[in-house]
Amino acid sequence: EMIVDIVKPQLGEAVCDPACGTGGFLFNAYQYVLKQYTSKENLKAGKLIGDKITEKKHWNILHNETYFGFDSEPVMIRIAVLNMILHGISEPNIHRKNSLSKGFDQKKKYDIILANPPFAGAMNTSDVHDDLSDSGKKTELLFCKLFYNILDVGARAGVIIPTGVLFGSSKAHLSLRKLLLEKCNLHTIVYLPSGVFKPYSGVSTAILFFTKGGSTEKVWLYDLQHDGLSLDDKRDIVEENDIPDLLKKIKKREESKQSITITLQDIKDNDYNLNVRRYIDNSEP
What we know:
By secondary structure, this protein is an alpha/beta fold. It has helices spanning 2-7, 24-36, 40-44, 56-64, 74-86, 139-150, 164-167, 171-182, 243-252, 264-269, and strands at 15-17, 67-71, 93-96, 110-115, 151-162, 184-191, 205-212, 218-223, 227-229, 237-241, 259-263. It has a nine-stranded mixed beta sheet with strand order 3-2-1-4-5-7-6-8-11. Helix 5 links the parallel strand 2 and strand 3 (93-96). It is globular, with a radius of gyration of 19 Å.
């Protein structure tokens, strides 16, 4: 919900999640649009019905031409389809495909990419799509290059990646960071605490927000320490939650103990290293 709120999908924009899992990004994007087109009276009554969308053609676009999801796991596909149906999309554009493979159509372009792809995997180079062949074997790097490839010029993304993407020293890591900084506007990076995906994974992650085209001038960094849930395997609700502070500060890109704006030159001076600790140090004295 936080990522969707920052990306702000609009009616008529095609949204894709090429590793959609259970479809969470897609139905949250749908609900975000519905909320923008639901009257105050219905919102107060808890009804997210999009009653301000009055033309049938707009409903047709929203239901049939807006949300696209792909995943290689059949169980995930079934859950994603069911989730979309339960949230109001009767015929979801959800398909079983490995979006990194040679059989995936990278010619179709999208207005928005929202994704949390698999981490720490590797593909056989013979299976990788030709347009990704310069990105190595690691799935997180391949997915990032895929995001770039299937975004239209001027389109935007909100994607979760393992933080190793931001400071890995391989040629493929460096090439990807240069691509995002020099051929995109990588305007925001939100670093997440390492427990946010427990009990499934303890890997440290970050969220990249970028627009394809142009180049980066400044990057706003936010070091999110708490997400409202405990950072252990239980993930119980706790009082500490930086998400409201993030959503408030991002509007004016405010600087604080947890946030800072850096320039492309700052990044170049650090050899294109985007490790949060190079720029923000919240460690205890």
